[in-house]
Amino acid sequence: MNHRISIIGAPTDIGAGVRGASMGPEALRVANIVPVLEGHGLEVLDRGNLNGPANPWQPPKDGYRHLNEVVAWNKAVHEAVHAELALGRLPILLGGDHCLGLGSISAVARHCRETNKKLRILWLDAHADFNTNILTPSGNLHGMPVACLCGHGPQELIEIGGQVPAISPKWIRQIGIRSVDAGEKRFVHEMDLEVFDMRYIDEMGMRHAMELALATLDINTHLHVSFDVDFLDPDVAPGVGTTVKGGPTYREAQLCMEMIADTGRLASLDVMELNPALDVRNATAEVAVDLIESLFGKSTLMRK
Q1: Which of 2, 18, 170, 229 would staple 90 via disulfide (CB 3.0–4.6 Å)?
Q2: At which positions is Mn(2+) bound (predicted)?
Q3: Is 302 or 3 the better-scoring residue by pLDDT?
């Protein structure tokens, strides 16, 4: 795994239905993300925060809220993430709401095209984020990034990575899903996304789900993890705008992260939807940093 890490803050809630995710990057810094990672012998550069338009808090237009602002933020994210990858570094994007996954993953996909690598994306989330302007009940773009990455969305968003679609649905594994709109569910099936929802995890266990999600990774695979903090059960992580009961427990989430770390393939990371305005004494940020530490090799046992 790459030991040169770059932290990039994207302080916006432009794609969300609740204000507050714009404060996420600072909360993660307050929870000591930089010193924690440095404690594992990693070289960490904090690149500070990106700039973008303010949140005008308008109703949706043509099924999209704040489309122009979302495009601006995602372009900034795309360029920043791509620049770090080009320098041979491992970018960690601190969100911000999950609409930014579009800018981040389109940059990773572009980097993989340029370096002739395969891409595997783990989407850890309570939601499939596979809505379109026709399917969405809200118009909030944080419910659409996966669909946009697969080429289903407004022209200005799907083109950001320089290739449409930016990714193939076959490259994604969604884990922890438990809240999907009716039309979105049909679309997920149509596109044949691989989804390990909570029912699957309940029946088969997190270990089995992760073994399948990580199967066939090889030395030429770039592994990207897009971690929406609402992946976690709200008892563990109350500080998100879209809590859904019945998510992975703290231990299940730890196992998930440790198994990702064991592959040695992690090459980029998003940490999304942390909302300090809804948190309790920064507890969710601390849990998130704890789990990120496991992604970078903190292990509970003295494993030989």
Answers
A1: 2
A2: 98, 125, 127, 129, 228, 230
A3: 3
pLDDT, tens digit, for every residue of 189-247? 999 999 999 999 999 999 999 999 999 999 999 999 999 999 999 999 999 999 999 99
3 catalytic? Reply is: no
Domains annotated for the chain, with CATH where assigned, are 4-295 (3.40.800.10)
Q: How would residue 43 be classed by pLDDT, with cut points 50, 70 and 90?
A: very high
- Catalytic residue check, 273: yes
Q: How much is the pLDDT for 303?
A: 59
The DSSP annotation for 264-289 comes to T-EEEEEEE---GGGSSTTHHHHHHH
* Residues contributing to the annotated binding site for Mn(2+): 98, 125, 127, 129, 228, 230
* Residue from 13, 252, 273, 293 carrying the catalytic annotation: 273
Which pLDDT tens digit goes with each residue over 257-285? 999 999 999 999 999 999 999 999 999 99
98 counts as catalytic: yes
Is 279 catalytic? The answer is: no
Per-residue model confidence (pLDDT) at position 60: 97
Burial class (CB in 10 A: 0-12, 13-18, 19+), 281: exposed
> How many Å is the Cα radius of gyration of the chain?
17
Annotation marks residue 235 as catalytic:
no
Burial of residue 47 (number of CB atoms within 10 Å: 0-12, 13-18, 19+): middle
Cβ-in-10-Å burial (0-12, 13-18, 19+) of 171 comes to buried
Report helix, strand or coil for 237.
coil
Q: In what order do the strands lie in the sheet with 43-49?
A: 43-49, 4-10, 90-95, 266-272, 221-228, 118-124, 172-175, 194-196
Tokens of 292: 């990120």
